[in-house]
Amino acid sequence: MDAAFPQDSPSMNPFRFLSGQRPLPSPSAGGRQAGIFITHVLNHRIRAHFDRLCRETEEIIDWQFAYNPWTVDDLAAGRGEFEIDRTSPRVRQAVDNGHLSMGYMDIVLFPLAKSANREFVWILEYDVDFAGRWPDFFQQFSNNGADLLATTLNTRRRDPRWTFWGYANGPCPKSRFTRAFMPIMRVSRRLIDVYEAALSTGEWSGHYEFLVPSIARVHGLRIEDIGGTGPFVPWRRRKRNYVNAAKDPHLSPGTFVWRPSMMAYFHEDDSAFTQRAMLYHPIKADVVEWEAEAPGALSEAI
Fold this sequence. Notes:
This protein is α/β, with parallel strands linked by helices. The protein has helices at 44-57, 72-76, 89-97, 106-116, 134-138, 189-200, 208-218, and strands at 33-39, 61-67, 120-125, 129-130, 148-155, 178-188, 223-225, 279-280. β1, α1 and β2 (61-67) form a beta-alpha-beta unit. α6 crosses α7. It is globular, with a radius of gyration of 18 Å.
């Protein structure tokens, strides 16, 4: 099995390349950021979307295509192509739940991000798009040192109706509980290490869109909203990069929502992308939607 990124440990091989995909350059080469493009579906439209992303950002980000059709039982049994720590408390929580789609994608995403061995790693789901040139989005953050960049960051006090608060547990006051919507995010090496250590205690549980920002805050790391109008967005990015209705269960209306879906990527048909220079989600390119009751800003569960 080929390793996707240079490894600290030669035994960790998180995923295989697609045909023709090469390992990333050394992490010491110019301090470049890495990116993981994650999908549970393979088709020519998704690959064309990924190709545009790579082509437009080749000067600033090294991307890898991660295909994960595996269930949590596959991964826990070692049948998938992703290697995860099957002894960790977090993986046991995922197995008990039975579904990656209900907030346990971190058992895949964080090992992948760690394997990149870079200071910052972007994670992008296949159904996220940008109405413009991708460098115009990413270059905003080239000198940004936040440990977590995500969308729709909000506190329990400001958004008490979020569906997954009932499953949120952690060794801190609930006033520190924070949630996000993370079909796109950027994490730092420091956050990856802190997150892994925090989860190893078994004291944290719940949806990863609660765990990631909450653990970061509790440990004094810097979190920022990519845009929007919430409490964690810097003024210079306010109302930029995306809009949504943060307290609506579907985050709708807006450009970056849980539902409704769009059917075409920006490079295929830009007519539906009425607000330019904005992130859009979700785009379902010949992908069947899955449904959940009261999604409450649940991100795409790949």
